[in-house]
Amino acid sequence: MPKPGTQSRIIGIFTITLGGTSRTSELVKLGNYDWFNEWITDDHFPIQPHEAIGRTIKLVEFDRDPNSEEIIEGFGRLGLKRPTYEDALQFGVEHPDEQCKHSIVFVHEPVLDPDGRLGVLALHMGVRRRGLGLYWFDVRWGRQCVFAGVRK
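RE: above sequence
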C-alpha cells in the first residue's frame, strides 16, 4: 500500500511495435548495448512469434523510492498496465537514447534469476554506457529510476 501522499506522474510517452519473429537474442543484439546480463537469453526470456502490434509506453516517475507493488498500484491509478519483457527489449531497440536520461525499469511479470530471486529487466545507464540488466523485483527502487507502463 502506498504511503499517503505518494505521487506519480507521466514524464514521457512513446510508441513501439512488437511482433514478427524476433527472438530475445536478436533484440539484445539490435539494442547495441555496451553491456548486458548474459542470463537474458532466448531460453529464459522466450518470445513467441506473433502479429505486429503497436504499444504505447508511458514512463512514470514517483516522488519517493517506490517498491514494485507500489509501482503496479500507481500504474492502476494512471490507467496503465504492466509491461512485458518483450516491451523492454523492443523499447531498448526503438528508443535507445531514453535510457541515457534515466534508468528505465520494466516491472513485468518477474522471472526466477539464477540465484532463485524474482527479477525484471531494466535499461540502465552507467558511466557513459548503456546496459540491459536483470534486477531484483523485491526491492525499493531509487528516484533516479522511471518505470515503463503500457496504456490499456
